[in-house]
Predict the 3D structure of the following.
Amino acid sequence: METYFFYFLENMALIIAMMYIGLKAREYIVPSLAESRKAPLLTGVLTGFLAFAIMYNPLLHEGMRLDLREVPLYFIAYIGGWVPGVIAMVIPFIYRIMMEGPTVWQGVVLGILLPVIIGSLFHGWKNHRKPYALVNIKRMLIGFAVFEMIKSVWMVLGTPATLGMAVIMAMMATIGLLSMGWILNDMHYNIMRRKALEHDSTHDALTGLPNLRFFHEQVGELKYNGVPIAVVMMDVDHFKNYNDTHGHPAGDGVLRSIGRLMEEVARPGDVIARYGGEEFILCFTEVSTEEQAFELADALRERIEDHAFYGAEQQPGGRLTVSIGAAISSADQPLDKLIEQADRALYRSKDAGRNQVTVVKVKANIEPAAEYQVNA
């Protein structure tokens, strides 16, 4: 019995080691794998290889090939469902058939088919899991207990395995499965925490938009790559009046709504961010003329003007509007200078009566060479 115990302990160590290495490889070598559509295929293949590695050097007992292949197969079916579970079966299924023996079909059914079937059933048809979701350990163990009960009874009654052997296998398999769940949860928790910290450091807490730090990084890279851009500053007109009339929670709701409207208007490659207070900043890419910048900025202005904000009818003019200023560089100007010129253009729009767009083109000496404006 001691031989069986230490053999299954080696199996468990192999499972834990390969689980840890696989998760670390996914995190640092192919971090996009978790969110890829190919994830079920790749994880299924890797799990099948792990099951094969466990089966490669089995413990032989009266023609039986004993190992803990069911642990990774059940685990992948439980966390991923039918697709990765079935894919994971392929390699161990073929290998077990090739090895033949008097209990080949019992080995296939009990060690390969059954764990995938029960694991998939406990996963649930409607149980959608995010790439870094945490495993429900209790549910996982309940499903595995059902599997082990069926398997142990079948082994004792239908194969040369003894009751003591079945108990040791079930115990070691449960420890191995529990270890896989803990490792996965620990790594996923750390990844989610790191992603949350990264998101919080580059995004505004109120609107969910990127912050000014993120804007500088992204637009600075665009300028470095020579992408023609227009920097746009936008300010909510009479926002203090809105806050005084409806309260700051309603004002926060306006800022969030404007953030969503900006995301809807933004094109692929554009960069948007909250500048601070009621001001927002944008970068329109692939824009080289004042007319292009004006059309894009004015479309955003109209989108916001037409939106049905709560209490907008109590604003001056009976609607909630924004003023916009944009700057285009005809030379390799520093980003801070472009933002400064866009801010000046914004205040020209506000001084001219608000709800307007002013676009300037900046020469090498930082002075605006041309100006376009609309009166709404």
User: Anything to note?
Assistant: The first strand starts at residue 59 and ends at 61. The mean pLDDT is 88.
